[in-house]
Amino acid sequence: MSIKVEYITKMYGEQYALDNISFEVNTGEIVGFLGPNGAGKSTMMKILTCYLPPSAGTATVNGYNVMENPIEVKKSVGYLPEHNPLYLDMYVKEYLEFIARIHKVNSVKKRVAEMVETTGLQVEQHKKIGALSKGYRQRVGLAQALIHDPEVLILDEPTTGLDPNQLEEIRRLIKNIGRQKTVMLSTHIMQEVELLCSRVIIIDKGKIVTDKETGALQQADENRIIIVVEFDKTTSIDALKQIGGVLEAVETKTNTYQIVSETSPDIRPALFRFAVDNKLSILEMQREELKLEDVFKKLTKK
Fold this sequence. Notes:
Blueprint: E1 3-12, E2 15-25, E3 30-34, H1 41-48, E4 56-61, E5 64-65, H2 70-76, E6 77-80, H3 92-102, H4 108-118, H5 134-146, E7 152-156, H6 164-177, E8 182-186, H7 190-196, E9 199-204, E10 207-213, H8 214-218, E11 224-231, H9 237-241, E12 246-253, E13 256-262, H10 268-277, E14 282-288, H11 292-300
Parallel strand pairs: 3-8, 3-9, 6-7, 7-8
Antiparallel strand pairs: 1-2, 1-4, 4-5, 9-10, 11-13, 11-14, 12-13
């Protein structure tokens, strides 16, 4: 595996930022590392990139221990931190050449040209970084993280400040990278996780609260389903709650009701009978998948 974390603890004085956590990430996985603010996400990423030492436990990246072989770890990792640190007085192309030389990349100019094209910086490459928008600065950060062709990519809020078109392009780039490399990313955009990540690790107060494949996490509540039904006119919520198997019912907008029910029996035939008995027409009915955002809130609720 590319990343292996065993019983990592990080303390600041008496406060636990990370509390005895363990997980593994394999090559070819794109893993979402999620949690509320202050949960310990950035601390874990800084340990994996050798910016912070753990208080206890061990972590290896690409087979190298972060404490014993930090230089080899850094060679193996491309890192985009949450607050993207760039030299604002340098030109884009100049900066990328500078980073490439630090990594002792072969054919510096050729590699920089590849990264400029990959991250969509062609138009901006001759500008100073300080003159770029936030979205283009993120692209420069991604380019520097990729320039030495690392086996592991660690991205902390990689799409911050991007417009919808840029978002689509960067997500496509990350997905392509994830086919050959290990990608670990932190984000607060749940749609991004659903689109990109094959697996989700959620951390809260320094502890892992779940570690599952994205699809399995969205189906985590196996004992209930959500049905949304729209009638042609209003009806009684109390009457809906009397249907066998219905656990909750709420009117989400005019004449539209979200109904939570047990998985068995299927309540949709009963809803049809309810409509007939109450002289209602069903305009639309659909089963909703549990949203990742709902799972996140449930697991990290204070």
